[in-house]
Amino acid sequence: MRKYTLEELNYDYLWRQCLIQPKTNVEDVIDRLIAIQAQDKEPPYTALYSRVKDFQVSDLLNLLEEKKVVKATSFRGTVQMMRRSDYLHYQPIIQEKFVQTLVKKLGQEKTTEFLTNARQEIKGKGPLTGPQLREMISSSEYPINPEYLRYPLTQIRVPRKDGAIHSINDYWLTIEEHVGESISMEVEKESFVLRYLKAYGPTTVADIHAFVGVTTLKETFHELLENGMITACTDDKNRKLFMADELKQANTKIPEIILGASLDHLTLGLKDKRKIVHKDAMIDLWELSAHPVILVNGWICGHWFIHKDNSIEVKWFVNVTSDVKERALAEVEKYFIWRKGDF
Largest CB tally within 10 Å, which of 50, 186, 205, 305? Predict the structure, then answer.
């Protein structure tokens, strides 16, 4: 079984994340990453800024308005932007967990009755605000947290405009009403694992479970391994990793400074973040993901902020030279100029 160094895994991961050679098409990036986290309005655009050559805000807005990309509560119980086809095919992996939660609370018969009645209740009501949806569901005879129903009812967040971009105060509408299609009746775990490994691998099973928010994919890994569709390798700590294709060789230089978004799947896509976080970084892993990050020569070394008064701040949790600090600040200022007027 081949053993890879952290440096080899780091380069390969950056390449898979479209951060060494940005793509020219937004939909291609979303397809590669499977989803982009989007409960806050700016991070999806920041994530694409570093991954798409000459990216413009309108590139993503057009995909949302054309319904090629949808916005919905999905992985980890958080809001994601996904290609419509991926939502339709992979949402059952998430739904499975939440339907089981309802069955535990109500029993199978009452769960079926409850979901049937809930779907009928919201059908044809048009886009609903969050409070309207909660009130409608809460009026049911069953004491169910409305948040549980956004999965089995396949509620899509239909963006409404707030200035130049979409507001985070979305409307809610079923996927059937939004795009005229229903989610797949099959749980396509094998396809999903392969897609995940091509964007985030090599990884452990724990990594994909952290990404998805469910713990039902271990058996799928072993089936794919037995069938020769994936292979295994080890890292510097001899942990067993799974991979769907060969590692990318370091033929292209890593950009010295890369800006990452807050809540980016660059960090949230993994449980073990050692292949992307600088070895000297001493920081809480949630705090790491909660703020926009700065990568220096491929490793996360700090956070950057644009405050409400438009002041810029960079916080380092690794010692870097004054020259690197200047160049990093220049990159944040460049981003500030790019996003000015849109946010």
Answer: 50
Domain end call among 157, 179, 201: 179
Q: What is the pLDDT of residue 163?
A: 47
Phi, psi of 283 (to 5 degrees): -155, 145
At residue 304, φ and ψ (nearest 5 deg) are -130, 150
Neighbour-count burial for 291-324, b at 16+ CB within 10 Å, e otherwise: bbbbbbebbbbbbbebeeeeeeebebbbebeeeb
Total number of residues shown for the chain: 343
pLDDT score at 167: 56
The model's pLDDT over 258-294, given as tens digits with 9 standing for 90+, comes to: 999 999 999 999 999 999 999 988 777 778 889 999 9
Tokens of 113: 């009755």
Residue 152 preceded by cis peptide, ω within 30: no
Poorest-pLDDT segment among 193-197, 281-285, 330-334: 281-285
- Provide the domain limits for residue 75: 35-179
Owner of token pair 């200035």: 163
In a domain, 1, yes or no: no
- Whose CA is closest to 9, among 335, 291, 333, 276? 276
Mind listing the pLDDT tens digit for each residue in 106-155? Answer: 788 877 777 777 777 777 777 777 777 777 666 656 555 555 555 556 66
Cα–Cα distance for residue pair 313/324, rounded to 1 Å: 15
pLDDT of residue 158: 72
Question: Of 158, 179, 200, which one is at a domain's C-terminal end?
Answer: 179
The amino acid at residue 103 is V
Assess if residue 91 is contained within a domain: yes
Instruction: Using the CB atoms, write b or e for 208-222: b if 16+ within 10 Å.
Output: bebbbebeebeebbe
Task: Answer whether 0.85 is exceeded by the pTM.
Answer: yes
Q: What is the pLDDT of residue 338?
A: 94
